[in-house]
From TrEMBL:
Residues 63-77 have a biased composition (Pro residues). Residues 100-234 form the Globin domain. This is nitric oxide dioxygenase. PANTHER family: NADH OXIDOREDUCTASE HCR (PTHR47354), PROTEIN RFBI (PTHR47354:SF5). Keywords: 2Fe-2S, Iron, Iron-sulfur, Metal-binding, NAD, NADP. SUPFAM superfamilies: Ferredoxin reductase-like, C-terminal NADP-linked domain, Globin-like, Riboflavin synthase domain-like. Residues 241-341 form the FAD-binding FR-type domain. In the C-terminal section; belongs to the flavoprotein pyridine nucleotide cytochrome reductase family. Its cofactor is FAD; heme b. InterPro entries: Cbr1-like_FAD-bd_dom (IPR008333), FAD-bd_FR_type (IPR017927), Flavoprot_Pyr_Nucl_cyt_Rdtase (IPR001709), FNR_nucleotide-bd (IPR039261), Globin (IPR000971), Globin-like_sf (IPR009050), Globin/Proto (IPR012292), MRET (IPR050415). It catalyses: 2 nitric oxide + NADPH + 2 O2 = 2 nitrate + NADP(+) + H(+); 2 nitric oxide + NADH + 2 O2 = 2 nitrate + NAD(+) + H(+). It comes from Streptacidiphilus cavernicola.
Length: 472
């Protein structure tokens, strides 16, 4: 592998073997570890609208729906999907709903979102109540705890509604959402029942602000949303599976309840350094959590994650405390925008707090592999020295690559390796200048938020501050 700036191949291999006795690919099939692990959930159509709530498991809707005691019949009942087919027989309002959203529709949708915001919790609870009342067979397919889904639903709803006036932004958002939802088993026909439940919740909680124009506006916007998502999912299905099976090939326990988990997927898993995957463990079906990929894509196909067991962290605790080689997990598609452009020489500032160092390790490996000269400065933050589980790996990388500078930053106690002390955002703010750098920030949300603010103050343009936190 050429070193950045070097003219020829280096004597060092780009990737040392991670696990020498890892099982081969193509091991998945009837009777394999995956099938045994998931035997209790055969052929699950594991639909959980974890990310947006515009989608759900379907299944035939009962022929005779129980009446909604607290909701009068909808004044305008056009379908939310494929309205073109039914347009000739629909009443005027329905025909209007079949065309695309107008500027007025978008204003009405945004206004109703503003009305809904203070009662978001109750509105999303109502959404699920209507959904499950009309489609009772769906409840068993959602995870036991719906709290996270509720939060995500409303955030996705807000995001889609707010972005409705910016087609490019909305399409990109929905495209990611649709691709990420294939692992839940979402089908085209699920969008209709979900849309109806959504409208029921909106109608109820917008109160006197809900009128026929608002309903038609929502129907147009929702139809546009559904069409983009259905198209994106279909395009993705031509290239990728809905999920990947991943066999655990090693679990390396580190101080501070951290485990480095090495995985081998059943099919090639294409991702960029800095991205994350979503993961489901057999112990908690239908509960998916994101984890940054801790190594650059390797020729042997192995992936690594760095996971910390945290109180009430169902999936993290299962991974750190219960998972062993041979176990089989499932991965969703890679996501996240913390990827590095290797075509320019902008110096990189990589800021990782706790297990937030994981994507930075992957980025360093990818820069090294790419072989173009650029400065890379890393600040690795932890509360105390004993939490710096990746210190040795970073020191090894710094020894290998002269363009890499690593500083360990502890918030409490004596300096480590002569590095600075204090909260990571404050330490970064005291250093610099950073105006010329592209910054990548990963770690606890408060750390990411504060660090992004410090970098902006330090003159780093917003578009050069990369992280996965929404709304910052
Ligand atoms: N792509 C991403 O954004 C990733 C995020 N994470 C997240 O990173 C977190 C890591 O947790 P731990 O290892 O327990 O880290 P931790 O809580 O021990 O903190 C690590 C660093 O963040 C700083 N920090 C913590 N709270 C802060 C605050 N309120 N303000 C300013 N700085 C603060 C600490 O001083 C320390 O330098 C988890 O929440 C995990 O979900 C992990 C991997 C990737």
């Amino acid at each position: 592998m050429p070193e950045p700036g070097g003219s020829g191949p280096s004597s060092r291999p780009a990737f040392a073997p991670m696990i020498t006795d890892a099982p081969g690919l193509n091991w998945a099939g009837p009777g394999d570890a995956w099938s045994r692990a998931w035997g209790a959930h055969p052929q699950q159509a594991p639909v959980l609208p974890a990310g947006n709530g515009f989608t759900t498991l379907a299944g035939p809707r009962p022929a005779a729906l129980p009446p909604m005691p607290d909701r009068p019949p909808a004044p305008v009942p056009p379908p939310l999907l494929n309205p073109a087919a039914a347009v000739a027989v629909l009443p005027l309002a329905a025909r209007t709903a079949a065309s695309g959203p107008t500027a007025e529709d978008i204003a009405l949708v945004r206004h109703s979102l503003g009305v809904l915001e203070p009662v978001a919790d109750r509105a999303t609870a109502h959404f699920y109540a209507v959904l499950f009342l009309r489609n009772p067979e769906l409840r068993a397919l959602f995870p036991a705890s719906m709290d996270v889904q509720r939060d995500r639903l409303f955030r996705a709803l807000l995001a889609a509604g707010q972005a409705a006036g910016s087609p490019a932004e909305l399409t990109a958002y929905l495209d990611r959402l649709a691709r990420g939802h294939r692992k839940y088993g979402v089908l085209d026909e699920h969008y209709g029942p979900v849309g109806e439940a959504l409208l029921a919740a909106l109608e109820r909680y917008c109160g006197r602000f809900w009128d026929q124009s608002t309903e038609i506006a929502w129907r147009r916007v929702y139809r546009a949303i559904s069409e983009v998502m259905i198209g994106s999912a279909a395009a993705d299905a031509r290239e990728n599976p809905a999920w990947w099976q991943a066999e655990v090939v090693a679990v390396d326990h580190r101080p501070g309840d951290v485990a480095v988990v090495a995985l081998r997927t059943d099919r090639p898993y294409r991702y960029r350094a800095g991205q994350y995957t979503t993961l489901e463990v057999p112990m908690w079906p239908r509960v998916w959590r994101p984890y940054s990929l801790a190594s650059a894509a390797r020729p042997d196909g192995l992936l690594t994650l760095q996971v910390k067991a945290v109180p009430a962290g169902w999936v993290s605790n299962a991974l750190v405390q219960r998972t062993q080689p041979g176990d089989v997990l499932r991965l969703g598609p890679p996501g996240g925008t913390m990827v590095v452009d290797h075509d320019d020489d902008t110096p990189l500032l990589l800021l990782g707090g706790g297990t937030g160092i994981a994507p930075m390790l992957a980025v360093i490996e990818e820069v090294a592999e790419h072989g173009r000269a650029r400065t890379v400065e890393v600040f690795y933050g932890a509360r105390r020295a004993s939490d710096l589980y990746a210190r040795e790996r970073l020191a090894e990388l710094a020894r290998l690559h002269p363009w890499l500078a690593v500083r360990s930053v502890v918030a409490e106690g004596a300096p480590v390796d002569g590095g600075p002390t204090g909260p990571l955002p404050a330490v970064v703010g005291r250093r610099g200048p950073w105006e010329e750098y592209a910054a990548y920030v990963s770690g606890p949300p408060a750390m990411v938020r504060r660090t992004a603010a410090v970098l902006l103050d330090a003159g780093v343009p917003r578009e050069r501050i990369h992280h996965d936190l929404e709304g910052v």
